[in-house]
Each structure stands twice: as structure tokens, then as C-alpha cells.
Design a protein that fits this description.
The structure holds two protein chains of two kinds. Chain A is built from six helices and no strands. Chain A has helices at about 15-45, 55, 60-85, 90-120, 130-160, 165-195. The longest helix of chain A is centred in the C-terminal third of the chain and has 34 residues, at about 130-160. Chain A is elongated. The N and C termini of chain A lie far apart (about 55 Å). Chain B is mostly helical. A two-stranded antiparallel sheet of chain B has the order 1-2. Chain B has a domain at about 1-10 and about 50-285: Cytochrome C Oxidase, Chain A. Chain B has 20 helices and two strands. The N and C termini of chain B lie far apart (about 65 Å). Classes of the chains: A mainly alpha, B mainly alpha. Chains A and B meet through helix 1 and helix 5 of A and helix 7, helix 8, helix 9 and helix 19 of B.
Chain lengths: ~200, ~650
């Protein structure tokens, strides 16, 4: 394995560079995935079939908490990658841990939100609007859930193996994923929640 | 017993029971054969666990050929039923199931893996790489495709086949009108195979963008590699749309959601839109690599460099962009209004321009060339006129006002077979014949190959030209019969004869493989066609590491330059080569996905949850795995190289 020391650790081998490009392309596919969900959402948003609509369901409180938690987690993972580039393993692991806790907090509030929706008579089977609402939010939530496990595994590996080109590469790719989920949330916040409450 | 009732087929017939027995016997025969010849270990070590792009390519090829015959049998049954008016060979339900599976099998489980087969085998060799960017992911792609295909194929003996057409339009595909599990199979089997295809798209884009040999700039890539790059780009942007559409369809059928239903606000046209936002780019995913194959073959056997290389590249990129802007032309008659229809009419007709550019480029490549009419070249020469007919009828269909006459008639069926058979199937058979010696170390028989090409072409013309006529006269597609007074009878009989001739053509192909395995000379050079691109610069059989030294590239036709202009392709000494290790994980994951899909189809929730957990455990294990691959030492390379050079 040839290691190029002029580059950051996560880019230092050919394999690492391939993985990072491959992941960017994967994120391109993810953009299409969420793009399709948003397009379907805009198509179905007014088809409530007499059931609750966004104005009725959405509350700004929990949504703002979710937004702050997720945006903060994006910041802390940025700090984590910064610490990784400085070679400070402990700091990096701490920031990654905080990121995952914030993610867990986000997920808890989202689940609470879902339960509230169901209590107000909006299940996934109520109308086309609730079907696409739960599916779009749920797809994002499932991504966050997967990210929690993935991030945990990466912390364990960094703990066990230290900062090697491989673990650094994994951590960096995970940070791309996490930032991407944040970007998707900004769209959900703006175009599903804020627009729905207007 | 209620539990087992769901596995029964809704419309049993003796043919299906016979198929069950045949499937059972074949499985037993394979197991017995493998045990008797003690080949289980060989199968596991050399094939099921392989991450070598060449072997994965060959597995794709075998799957594609098997599916070609499955889809071909479907086709013959359809044409036999329609051969005479009011025939009783198949009932309406059975006919619906057969045309639905014929479409899905041919597009997704025959044409796609055929393209993947050639892409896998050829692209890394053409760019001078040792493997693809993510070899294990590549194996996973294959096994996901394979398990998806198998899941789809068992539908007709367990639970019933999908019967809502390959487009599976809602509300027809909803629970109300498609009661059997058939459409569940459609949603879930295609989902599994589709994830595999998406991963291939990511893998090959990364490979082509990052792993080209030194000196090969983007504009020095061989045309097949270019077409693969563009096709994979389309895959990455089109397949997620299908993923979402299928997930929604699955939820509508199994979880009672209301995406495409006719009540509670659902919108059936959303399915049609999402399906074709994926579906139209999908046909370009098939046709662009086919164009790439034709470009390689025409340039090789006209003994000239490809005319208009740059315009070839630009036209492909333009086609890729347009492919996402034309989807509504599949349902002009569904009332989206004159303005929308006009816009989509114009974008659709505009696609004819870059396609025309390519046709003329091939013609100019032939002009003043020293044409050698080998079998691959014969396919290419048949392709140009036949495909052009299909292209012209495509422009006819693109006119939205006129489409009200053509829509849902045999005219449309004639059109898309007219582009897919000469465009894709001929390209795949040409590519198969062309790359056969590189894959297997001997050539297919030329005489039998030409017989196949002619039989397929004549059969194709007889089978599909009459459909243009009956279509214009109003024969609807997907109708299992028609009355004698329509006058469609004789034309449909001609179609049946044409289909039978095509079947003979494929039988000759099978015989050709058998004949060539037995009698063809093994003493061929590594470059039997006197070709121009890099894949012919390595030995036959291709060693595990493809190239002992990384080739140095100076032009589009580096290998030709090396042969004729004294360009030095391989410089320097051997160095040890890093290769990935084999892994059983992709195959195991594929098997779990199969069980997952099967449980999902029938809504058996406990195994579904267990297999879902199993899939995530596999992913977690992969995350923790520490696999650094292995090195091939210089001595080993020298030994292999000496041996292979002796063979040539």
C-alpha cells in the first residue's frame, strides 16, 4: 500500500481516494432518492381526503428542537474531522460521540412527533398526504438510525485500531453522510414543515 | 392449512405443473452432478466467492443467456396464442401473466445483465485496470441481481406471476385488481435487482473516472468505455427513482398506504410518471453500451479509426441528458394537456438528432474502409438499417396528436421491439461473438454465427413488420385474442412464423456454442480479430491481474499504435501486484436477500424481520472486517507470463 503523506490521512492511499469518490457518487444517487420523495410529496400534499393536513398536524416546538439538534450534530462532526486531521484521537472520538448523542436526541423527538401525529388521527394509511409525509420523514429517520449504528462502529474501530488511513477514511466518509442528512433535513424543515404551517 | 394456501398458484394448468416438476428435476440434477463430480469446492472457491471482474462478467453472461431463453419461451407462447383468431391455447389471465413476465425478464433480467456482462469483462481491460474500484461490491451487485431474477422467476410456480404488464400501472396493479401475490413479486424482485444495478453504476463510474492507465485522458477512452460511463451515470440518477416508486407500490399493496390508490387521495398517474422517469432513461442504459459495442466492432472490421470520435461522445452525453426529459411521451393520451404534450413531443423528436449523428458516424467509418464481414460485423451491418426503421417509427410515435391513433396498439409493440432487438440484442450477440475468444480462448464458428444473424434478422422482420400494419388498423396490444372479422389473422400468423424462425436462430446459436466447444481450434492468438483497443493487448486467457505491467497510453487506439507505429505499450520491470481477496459474504448476503424478498412477497413477518436483521449484521461484519487483500509476487508474475506467452 503506497501512502502519500502530502495528503490528509483519509486521502492518503489510492483505495481511500476511490472510496471517497465512490461515496460522493452514492450521495448523488441519494439526492435523486430524496428528490423523488420531495416531488411526490409536493404532488400529494393537498390530497388529504378529509383527514388532517400539515396546518393541523405540525407544531413548531418539536420541529425546532429537531432542527437545532441535527444542525448542532453537523457542527460537532465537523469538529471531529478537524480533530482527526490534527491527529487528536481522543478529541475526535469525543466529538463523534457527541454527534451520535445529538442524533439520538433528534431521533427521539422525531419518534415523539410521529406518536403525536398518530394520536391526532394521522397514520400512514389515512390519506395520500399522510402516506408520503411518513414515508419522506421516515426515510430520513431511517438514514439517521443507520448512521447511529455506523458511527458507533467507527468509534469502536478508531478506539481499537487508532487513526490509520483506513479508519480515517471511514470516519471522513461517515462525516459526508452525516452532513448530507443535515442538508436533507434543511429541505424537510423548509418545504414540509415551514411551508405546511404557512 | 390456511398458511400454505397462499403459495398455491391462482390459475393452475398442466403446463405449470410440468414446469414445477422440470424445475425440481433440474435442481436435483445440478446437486447430484456437482456431488458426483466433486465440484462443490471448485464452485465455491472459483465462482461463488470470486471478486474477479472477468468471472463476474461470465456469471452475468450465463444468467443473461438463461433469461433470454426464459423470455423467449414466453414470447413464443404469446405469438402462438395470437397466431389464429379466437385461439384457446392460453386464457386471458395466463396471457396477462406471460406478457408481463416476458417484458420484465427481457428488459431487466436479460438485456441488463448482458450489458453488465460485457461491461464487467471489457471495461477494466479497455482502460488498463487490474479490477474495478470496489471488487467485492461488484460481486454483491451480481448476487443481488441474480437473486432478484431468481425470485421473480419462481413466481409462476409459487403464488402466481405478476399480471399487470411490465409497466405495472396502478390501479390495475393494486390489490383490488391484482389479487395474487404476483405484483408483490414484481415490486420486490425488481427492488433487489435494482439495488444491485445502482451499486454497479457507482462502482463503474468510480472505476472509469479514477482507474484509467497513465496517459488515457477522458477523450482518449475507447468508445465502449465512454458509453459505459454515460450509461452508468444514467443508472445512478435513474434507479433511485425506481427504488422509491417500487417502495411506494409495495407499501400500497402490503401496508395499506394511499400513494397510487383511487381512494383517500391517492394518485394513480404518479406511478406512471415515476415509472417512466426511470423507465425512459433505462432504455438508454441499454442502448448506449450497445452503441459502444457497435462502434468498437465497426471500427475494427472497417479497418479504420472511428469517424467523428468527439461527436460520438457529445451525442451520447446529449442523449443521456434528453433521456430524463421525455418520459411523458409514454402516456400522451392520459390528459396532461396540449402544452405538456407539445413540449414532450419536441424533446422526444430532438433525441433523433444525436442518434442520427451516430448513425452517420458509423456510415462514414465504413466509407472507404476495407470491410471484413465477420459475424460481429454482419450484426452491425444489419443493425444500421433495421434500427433506423425503428428510429423513424419512434419519431412517428413522438408526435403527440398522431399518438392518439398509435397508443396502446401493436404499432407501439412493433416500434420498441424494432429498436431493442436490432439495437440491443444484436449488439449483445455481436459483442458476445467478438469477445468470446478473449473470454474462453477459442472462437465461435463463423458460418453458424452468420446463420444465426440472418435467421434472427429475417425472423425479426417477419415477426414485427406485420405489427406495424395491424397496429395502424387498430389491433390493441395486451389483448389475448381477436375475432376473425378484424382481418388480423393472416398478419399474426406471419408474426408467429417470424417468431419461430427467431427461435431457430437461437437454437443455432446454442448449437454453435456446443460445436465450437468441441471442435474449435484452441491455438488462437490473443488478438484474433486484429483489433485496435487495449483489451486485446493482454494474453488469452486473461491472467488474474489483467496486465503484468501498467500500459502506457498515447492515443484512442493505443494497441493499434503499438502494433503498427512502434508505440511501446509496456515499459519497465515487473512489480508485485496488489489484488483483492475472495469473499463468501456477497453470495451469503444475496441468499439472505432472497429469503427476505420471499418473506416480503408473502407477508410472512417473522422471517422478514429476521432476514432484515441478518442483512444488517452482514453489513456490520463487513465494517469490522480487516481485509487487506494479497500480493502477487514478481516470481509468480514471471512464471505466469512465460507460460501464457508460450501458449500464444
Amino acid at each position: 500500500m503506497k501512502i502519500d503523506n502530502s495528503l490528509p490521512l483519509e486521502y492518503s492511499t489510492e483505495e481511500n481516494r476511490l472510496k471517497i469518490l465512490g461515496f460522493w457518487i452514492f450521495l448523488g444517487a441519494e439526492i435523486m432518492l430524496f428528490g423523488t420523495l420531495f416531488a411526490s410529496y409536493f404532488t400529494l400534499v393537498d390530497r388529504t381526503a378529509g383527514g388532517p393536513n400539515g396546518m393541523h398536524l405540525f407544531e413548531i416546538g418539536p420541529v425546532l428542537i429537531e432542527t437545532f439538534l441535527l444542525l448542532a450534530s453537523s457542527f460537532t462532526i465537523g469538529l471531529g474531522i478537524h480533530a482527526m486531521r490534527l491527529g487528536r484521537r481522543k478529541a475526535m472520538m469525543t466529538f463523534f460521540g457527541i454527534t451520535l448523542l445529538l442524533g439520538l436526541g433528534f431521533l427521539s423527538v422525531e419518534i415523539y412527533d410521529f406518536i403525536m401525529y398518530v394520536h391526532e388521527g394521522a397514520t400512514i394509511q389515512t390519506s395520500a398526504f399522510t402516506s408520503i409525509l411518513f414515508t419522506t420523514l421516515g426515510t430520513h429517520g431511517a438514514h439517521v438510525t443507520l448512521g447511529l449504528f455506523w458511527g458507533l462502529f467507527i468509534i469502536l474501530q478508531v478506539k481499537k485500531r487508532g487513526l490509520t488511513p483506513e479508519t480515517a477514511n471511514k470516519s471522513f466518509i461517515f462525516s459526508l453522510y452525516w452532513h448530507f442528512l443535515d442538508v436533507v433535513w434543511i429541505f424537510i424543515f423548509s418545504f414540509i414543515y415551514l411551508k405546511g404551517m404557512m | 392449512m390456511d398458511f400454505f394456501d397462499r403459495f398455491a398458484i391462482p390459475h393452475p394448468s398442466p403446463v405449470i405443473y410440468a414446469s414445477m416438476v422440470a424445475i425440481g428435476l433440474t435442481v436435483l440434477a445440478i446437486i447430484a452432478g456437482l456431488s458426483y463430480f466433486k465440484k462443490w469446492g471448485y464452485l465455491w472457491r472459483e465462482w461463488l466467492t470470486t471478486v474477479d471482474h472477468k468471472r463476474i462478467g461470465i456469471m452475468y453472461l450465463i444468467s443473461a443467456l438463461l433469461m433470454l431463453f426464459r423470455g423467449g419461451v414466453d414470447a413464443i407462447m404469446l405469438r402462438a396464442q395470437l397466431a389464429t383468431p379466437e385461439a384457446k391455447l392460453l386464457d386471458a389471465q395466463h396471457y396477462n401473466e406471460i406478457f408481463s413476465t416476458h417484458g420484465v425478464v427481457m428488459i431487466l433480467f436479460m438485456a441488463m445483465p448482458f450489458i453488465m456482462a460485457l461491461m464487467n469483462f471489457v471495461v477494466p481491460l479497455q482502460i488498463g485496470a487490474r479490477d474495478v474500484a470496489f471488487p467485492r461490491l461488484n460481486a454483491l451487485s451480481f448476487w443481488l441481481f441474480f437473486m432478484g431474477a431468481m425470485l421473480f422467476n419462481i413466481s409462476f410456480v409459487i403464488g402466481g406471476s405478476p399480471d399487470a404488464g411490465w409497466t405495472s400501472y396502478f390501479p390495475l396493479a393494486g390489490n383490488e385488481f391484482s389479487e395474487s401475490v404476483g405484483t408483490n413479486y414484481y415490486m420486490i424482485a425488481i427492488q433487489i435487482a435494482g439495488i444491485g444495478t445502482l451499486l454497479t453504476g457507482i462502482n463503474f463510474m468510480t472505476t472509469i473516472l479514477k482507474m484509467r492507465a497513465p496517459g488515457m485522458t477522458l477523450m482518449k477512452m475507447p468508445m465502449f468505455t465512454w458509453s459505459s460511463l454515460v450509461a452508468n451515470l444514467i443508472i445512478v440518477f435513474a434507479f433511485p427513482v425506481l427504488t422509491v416508486a417500487l417502495a411506494m407500490g409495495t407499501m400500497d399493496r402490503l401496508f395499506g398506504t394511499h400513494f397510487f390508490t383511487t381512494d383517500n387521495g391517492g394518485m394513480d398517474m404518479l406511478w406512471a410518471n415515476l415509472f417512466w422517469v426511470w423507465g425512459h432513461p433505462e432504455v438508454y442504459i441499454l442502448i448506449l453500451p450497445s452503441f459502444g459495442i457497435y462502434s468498437e466492432i465497426i471500427s475494427t472490421f472497417a479497418r479504420r479509426n472511428l469517424y467523428g470520435y468527439k461527436s460520438m461522445v457529445y451525442s451520447m452525453v446529449v442523449i443521456a441528458a434528453y433521456s430524463f426529459l421525455v418520459w411523458a411521451h409514454h402516456f400522451f393520451t392520459m390528459g396532461q394537456g396540449a402544452l405538456t404534450n407539445s413540449i414532450f413531443s419536441i424533446t422526444t423528436m430532438a433525441i433523433a438528432v444525436p442518434t442520427g449523428v451516430k448513425i452517420f458516424n458509423w456510415l462514414f467509418t465504413l466509407y472507404k474502409g476495407k470491410i471484413e464481414m465477420t459475424t460481429p460485423m454482419l450484426y452491425s451491418m444489419l443493425f444500421i438499417p433495421l434500427f433506423t426503421i425503428g428510429g423513424v417509427t419512434g419519431v412517428m410515435l413522438a408526435m403527440s396528436a398522431a399518438d392518439y391513433q398509435y397508443h396502446n396498439t401493436m404499432f407501439l409493440v412493433a416500434h420498441f421491439h424494432n429498436v431493442i432487438i436490432p439495437g440491443v440484442v444484436f449488439a449483445m450477440l455481436a459483442g458476445l461473438t467478438y469477445y468470446w475468444p478473449k473470454m474462453f480462448g477459442f472462437m465461435l464458428n463463423e458460418k453458424l454465427g452468420k446463420w444465426t444473424a440472418w435467421l434472427l434478422s429475417i425472423g425479426f422482420l417477419l415477426a414485427f413488420m406485420p405489427m406495424y400494419i395491424t397496429g395502424l388498423d387498430g389491433q390493441a396490444r395486451r389483448m389475448y385474442t381477436y375475432s376473425e372479422s378484424t382481418g388480423f389473422g393472416p398478419w399474426n400468423m406471419v408474426s408467429f412464423i417470424g417468431a419461430a424462425i427467431m427461435a431457430v436462430g437461437f437454437a443455432v446459436l446454442v448449437y454453435n456454442v456446443y460445436y465450437s466447444v468441441r471442435y474449435a481450434s484452441r491455438n488462437i492468438s490473443s488478438d484474433p480479430w486484429d483489433a485496435r483497443t487495449l483489451e486485446w493487448a493482454t494474453h488469452t486467457p486473461v491472467p488474474e491481474y489483467n496486465f503484468a505491467q501498467v500500459p502506457q497510453i498515447d492515443s484512442i487506439e493505443t494497441f493499434w499504435d503499438a502494433k503498427k507505429k512502434g508505440h511501446v505499450l509496456f515499459k519497465g520491470k515487473y512489480e508485485k501486484i496488489h489484488m483483492p481477496n475472495n469473499s463468501g459474504m456477497p453470495f451469503i448476503m444475496g441468499c439472505i436477500f432472497f429469503a427476505w424478498g420471499f418473506s416480503f412477497v408473502f407477508g410472512i413477518w417473522v422471517p422478514l424481520i429476521l432476514t432484515t436483521i441478518g442483512i444488517f449484521i452482514c453489513m456490520a461484519l463487513r465494517s469490522f472486517e480487516n481485509d487487506h487483500g494479497h500480493y502477487i509476487s514478481v516470481e509468480e508474475i514471471e512464471e505466469t507470463e512465460t507460460k501464457l506467452r508460450g501458449a500464444n
